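Design job #97: recover the sequence.
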């Protein structure tokens, strides 16, 4: 067993779980402030906080037209449902510490860290929003004793009680022949203090055997406890947020098992043996089997339990109650939205990492910290594409972008619509033309340097469609453009992840000649040694060729199991905090997880640029490694 602790660098840290104080007034106006992050949409912000888009728009006039990174939005505190009434969203103020929040809200630091698995010293800063699980405040109101945790190099020490809020030290049971004077001497208290703690005694000095007496703290004891409390508070006030967060999170650490148990939930739909959808699920499963074989050869033990979830109307309650499912260390799947809610609730309750590789637009990922969504909607990683686009093509002032509209459609698609403001902010010139414009007109508009004719100038074409038809229409035209352009004028075509499905047979040569780039979060160069080795292993293992699909479901399953098993072995259910440091080089799929919010799930924000170069090379550009 591997004992996990991230507290080895901290010695004798005292962490007060909850101290007396008054409830913070930061949300007294019924709203808090959210600062828009890059890539966020009104839809995603509304889902994060469980409110409607219309509600946010009504509180922020003009936001319905457009929101931008850095913009401040007023978000209402919700108290409609039971779950909503048990949480408060808090905007961190300048100079505020995690300890002070714990005091103000009467919630333990551990509970705050537990509610915000993505909280770190880096993102605990002014303007960020965190979730306060205020249901804990009821315990403080009831006067229950609070605790602090002592943490040293060995990890989390045993919790001890600091009974500063208790009125009495103990209860004494009177023995035969005991009197008040003797009991007061025993506990070093005065008779007045004893009588004050036991009003029923009145002026009577008679006691009976078995009688219960409250024994108060002595004046000296109370003074010592107050001094002790002040010292602890001073120490906590001087601790930085990093130490407090790490200490609070250490309470969530668990031992990593020697045998890792995976539950795989797939809709095999065995009554339909020939559909492409079923074949994809089977190949995903076969890819996981090949991953287990690789892990076994590395000395890693994994038990895989496979469950057929049936079609999208099937009830999977029996799966959630299966003993094999209940002992899962992490879950892969399911596919259908109907099943995801039940599995997500189970994952939250049992703190089990759950990977969702087959479905996008999963609502539960906005508020469930144990969900990892791989098939992320493009809107989430679009901002990364734009940043990478600027880095790849527009690092100097020698680039022009040419957008190509379809003849019957002048409306920008979502990608080009949002790229244009990015170009404007970066002062990158662009123009829009119709895709069937005569070739000579394209040559007339190409970017050239009239002052210095030998300066290389770049022209990047972007078609306002990801479909194959417009691409195959423009490629021959681009060939003619290239043959007639100025010697120091360069051209390239930038496109969409769907392009890899079109890169086949006779189009491959045109891809290279067109100097095509496209973005994707998955890709495999079929001529690469690792890819060919995997295809060969698949063929020998299952006596068939892999089907052609995008992504390749066999390689998809292979990468997911390898990546998450390696991550889990290193970090357990805290792997979300360390997803940048997993020692596995994927074969097909890129992994770069970002948490939607400190209390939400993880989304895969990885994106590559694939480049079909003019010298017949295929390059996978990973901007995270540049």
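Job complete. Output follows.
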């Amino acid at each position: 067993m591997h004992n996990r602790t991230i507290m080895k660098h901290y010695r004798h840290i005292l962490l007060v779980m909850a101290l007396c104080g008054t409830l913070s007034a930061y949300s007294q106006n019924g709203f808090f402030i959210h600062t828009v992050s890059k890539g966020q949409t009104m839809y995603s912000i509304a889902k994060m906080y469980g409110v409607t888009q219309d509600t946010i728009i009504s509180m922020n006039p003009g936001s319905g037209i457009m929101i931008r990174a850095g913009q401040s939005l007023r978000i209402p505190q919700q108290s409609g449902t039971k779950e909503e009434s048990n949480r408060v969203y808090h905007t961190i103020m300048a100079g505020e510490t995690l300890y002070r929040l714990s005091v103000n809200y009467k919630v333990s630091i551990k509970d705050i860290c537990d509610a915000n698995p993505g909280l770190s010293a880096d993102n605990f800063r002014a303007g960020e929003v965190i979730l306060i699980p205020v249901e804990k405040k009821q315990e403080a109101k009831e006067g229950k004793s609070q605790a602090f945790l002592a943490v040293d190099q060995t990890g989390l020490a045993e919790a001890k009680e600091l009974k500063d809020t208790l009125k009495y030290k103990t209860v004494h049971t009177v023995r035969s022949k005991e009197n008040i004077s003797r009991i007061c001497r025993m506990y070093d208290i005065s008779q007045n203090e004893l009588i004050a703690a036991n009003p029923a005694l009145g002026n009577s000095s008679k006691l009976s055997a078995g009688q219960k007496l409250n024994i108060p703290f002595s004046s000296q004891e109370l003074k010592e406890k107050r001094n002790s409390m002040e010292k602890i508070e001073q120490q906590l006030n001087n601790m930085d947020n990093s130490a407090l967060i790490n200490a609070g999170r250490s309470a969530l650490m668990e031992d990593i098992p020697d045998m890792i148990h995976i539950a795989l939930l797939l809709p095999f739909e065995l009554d339909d043996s020939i559909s492409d959808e079923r074949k994809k699920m089977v190949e995903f499963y076969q890819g996981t089997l090949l991953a287990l074989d690789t892990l076994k050869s590395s000395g890693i033990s994994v038990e895989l339990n496979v469950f057929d979830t049936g079609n999208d109307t099937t009830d999977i309650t029996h799966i959630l109650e299966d003993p094999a499912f209940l002992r899962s260390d992490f879950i892969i799947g399911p596919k259908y939205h109907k099943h995801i809610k039940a599995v997500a609730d189970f994952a939250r309750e049992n703190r089990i990492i759950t990977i969702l590789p087959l479905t996008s637009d999963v609502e539960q990922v906005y508020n469930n910290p144990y969900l990892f969504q791989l098939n992320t909607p493009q809107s989430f990683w679009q901002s990364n594409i734009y940043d990478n686009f600027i880095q790849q093509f527009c690092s100097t002032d020698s680039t022009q972008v040419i957008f190509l509209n379809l003849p019957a459609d002048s409306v920008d698609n979502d990608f080009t619509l949002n790229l244009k403001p990015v170009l404007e902010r970066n002062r990158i010139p662009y123009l829009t033309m119709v895709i069937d414009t005569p070739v000579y007109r394209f040559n007339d508009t190409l970017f050239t340097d009239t002052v210095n004719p030998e300066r290389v100038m770049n022209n990047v074409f972007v078609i306002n469609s990801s479909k194959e038809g417009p691409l195959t229409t423009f490629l021959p035209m681009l060939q003619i453009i290239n043959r007639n352009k100025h010697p120091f004028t360069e051209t390239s075509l930038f496109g969409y992840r769907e392009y890899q499905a079109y890169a086949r047979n006779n189009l491959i040569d045109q891809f290279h000649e067109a100097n095509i780039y496209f973005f994707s979060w998955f890709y495999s160069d079929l001529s690469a040694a690792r890819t060919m080795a995997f295809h060969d292993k698949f063929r020998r293992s299952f006596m068939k060729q892999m089907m052609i699909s995008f992504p390749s479901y066999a390689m998809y399953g292979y990468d997911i199991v390898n990546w998450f098993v390696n991550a889990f072995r290193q970090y357990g259910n805290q792997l979300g905090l360390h997803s940048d440091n997993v020692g596995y080089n994927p074969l097909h799929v890129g992994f770069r997880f970002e948490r939607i919010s400190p209390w939400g799930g993880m989304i895969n924000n990885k994106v590559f640029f694939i480049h079909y170069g003019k010298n017949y090379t295929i390059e996978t550009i990973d901007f995270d490694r540049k």
